[in-house]
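Fold this sequence, please.
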Amino acid sequence: MSLQTDDRKYQSGFANHFETEALAGALPIGRNSPQKCAYGLYAEQFSGSAFTAPREHNKRSWLYRIRPSVIASDFVPLDHPNLSLLAADVVTNPNQMRWEPQNDPSEKTDFIEGLFAICGNGSVTSQVGVGIYSYVANSDMGGYFYNSDGEMLIVPQQGTLYIATEMGVLDLAPKEICVIPRGLKFRVKLEGSETFARGYVCENYGAPFELPNLGPIGANGLASARDFLTPVANYEDILGEFDLVNKFGGHLWQTTLDHSPFNVVAWHGNYAPYKYDLTRFNTINSVSFDHCDPSIFSVLTSPSSRLGVANCDFVIFPPRWMVAESTFRPPWFHRNIMSEFMGLIEGVYDAKAEGFVPGGASLHNTMSLHGPDVKTFEKASNKDLEPEYLDKTMAFMFESNLTYSVSKKALNSPLRQKDYHQVWQGLKSHFDAKKP
């Protein structure tokens, strides 16, 4: 915990109490809401949990800003043709599904305009479940956005994003992730010479993402708290006309401001945006036999009300050594209660020989059978089991205990591979009762 008044962009740590000020002395000492704040600022509390939540789950930050957030006109509805995951716009379907990546749009499209709803579960009103989107963008956001429905886990696949928020700035490249807290205002621009960006978003309605418990792994496996970065205060004092869009109850609403909402001069607390470099993940794997469960690859988890069962796990499959003996090394054929949405950031996934490409996605719902395709099965069953390093790969999974319903737009999209089930049709019987 330290004050930041220099030119550093980030603070290190996860779920700590941070302090940061862009002007020395902007943060009050000993009281959060003094009668008069330094520099004539307004004190505003930003809460991400109930006031009475247990201390370890209580999320809140104090913002000291030039103008309070209440200065805005009435919100009016704003149409978005591809965003809805409401009940009338989704279908619950048991089939395995896979999609090609989205291409660069023919028209000017920013991050919010380029969101495409693929699937979701739970409910924004009951604050359970998640929504999953892909995004494409070829232009900067002109206005600002905040999400009242859930926090947003952003996973870039192509193109670096420059994400300015009320609480500071995040630059986000492929193989990095960031989490934007529920309710935080932000704006996304393309970084530098980038002309196209593509990736994935998990909109989490449930408990905020946190680091998973390590159990028998011990103190030092998986993601380390010190590698998560939170921005330092960085404010704008600009007057003009600015559009602010809010996602509320599954719909978009828009208002107009007469000032930039990025006017927070200082803040302290533990409810803030953060980023993480996936290449810093300490991968755990088997060194004897059998293929380990994907839980050993969990970066973040959103717990549910049932102990040990996640509202959503964010799991990655990074470069790693495979050394298990006398073992079928790719993921085995399986059915399970968790629903699995997968994306690919880079390279290939070791259970798929073809068809699953960077920027694409697949969905294997609750109790839907899945596993390696024919080519992968034959190769893995017959290869020499020497130590093998899986290089230049980064797949991920949004795994949930709730069944995903697919948006009708995604179900009928030309990007959906209608023949996906064919990848398993060539699996033959090798049974011979005379050969034990």
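Residues 73-262+271-278 form a domain with the Jelly Rolls fold (CATH 2.60.120.10). Residues 158 and 198 are 5 Å apart (CA to CA).
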